[in-house]
Design brief:
276 residues; 9 helices; eight-stranded mixed beta sheet; Rossmann fold; alpha/beta; globular
Length: 276
């Protein structure tokens, strides 16, 4: 990998919580940051906050509401047109078990269960659409921010229309991210691209955690340290297709290692997002 100061790094969900912390630290190291957020005002505030410390010359913003696959496609097209390369993608944007919706089932603009749509489908589509740019940028990394909270996917009720629970919806979406990680790592193994995922830390003081629980267990710094390791540690240059709990390699839910389940998820996802 190039030195961090020479890298172009895309961070989704960069306007709050872990995403903003990751973007800030990488900017301090001199990287060029592509900051994603769904709100122009919060994107501008993030640029101002980071720029006050490092200047704004190496900060670029991309607005997209990940509850809309059309907006994800538009963002991917803008990135493809506007960027010569991407050295790292940090797929971090997400919604929690209770926010939004206060525990009630909510659908995306495309009619999909919201947690599955935002936490998983949007990143599946974005990463797939940027695949050629990432490959041209090799060596490169893809880091998927997942969770230790994982629930197996019921392929007879993926959108949880028959029996909804916010925690289950969140955990299912996070397992889907891990399954995508393992698939993509195999696909890109010989292209100079590593793909890994992690549970950064347990219940950090982020907006979605505080809304759901009212208290944190881990510090944001713990999650930041673990995430930055996957983004920038040269010792991981050839490490791919793994799930980490913090800084330690760990085992995901058994469904993640089932090739048939991953195939079913991949085929479903391609159909839902309109990829052949």
């Amino acid at each position: 990998m190039r030195p961090t100061a020479e890298q172009v790094i895309l961070v989704t969900g960069a306007t709050d919580g872990l995403g903003r912390a990751v973007a800030t630290r990488l900017a301090e190291r001199g990287a060029t940051l592509l900051l994603h957020g769904r709100d122009e005002t919060r994107l501008a505030d993030t640029v101002q906050r980071i720029g006050a410390r490092r200047g704004t010359g190496k900060l670029r913003t991309y607005r997209s509401d990940f509850s809309s696959l059309a907006e994800v496609r538009d963002m991917a097209e803008l990135v493809e047109r506007g960027e010569e390369r991407i050295d790292v993608i940090v797929n971090n944007a997400g919604v929690g078990s209770t926010l939004p919706g206060d525990g009630e089932r909510v659908e995306s603009r495309d009619g999909h269960e919201l947690r599955f749509a935002v936490n998983y489908l949007a990143h599946f589509l974005l990463t797939r659409r940027l695949r050629s740019l990432i490959v041209r940028s090799a060596p490169a990394r893809i880091v998927n921010v997942s969770s230790a909270g994982q629930a197996p996917i019921d392929f007879n009720d993926v959108m949880l229309e028959r029996s909804y629970d916010g925690t289950r919806a969140y955990c299912q979406s996070k397992l889907a991210q891990i399954m995508f990680t393992f698939d993509l790592a195999e696909e890109l193994r010989d292209a100079g691209i590593t793909v890994n995922c992690l549970h950064p830390a347990s219940l950090m003081p982020t907006k979605i955690v505080m809304h759901a629980r009212g208290a944190a267990i881990s510090t944001l710094e713990e999650g930041l340290d673990a995430t930055l390791r996957l983004v920038a540690d040269p010792e991981l240059d050839r490490i791919t297709g793994l799930y980490f709990d913090g800084r330690d390699e760990a085992q995901a839910n058994p469904q993640a290692y089932n090739p048939d389940a991953r195939r079913r998820l991949r085929e479903l996802s391609e159909r839902l997002v309109g990829l052949g």
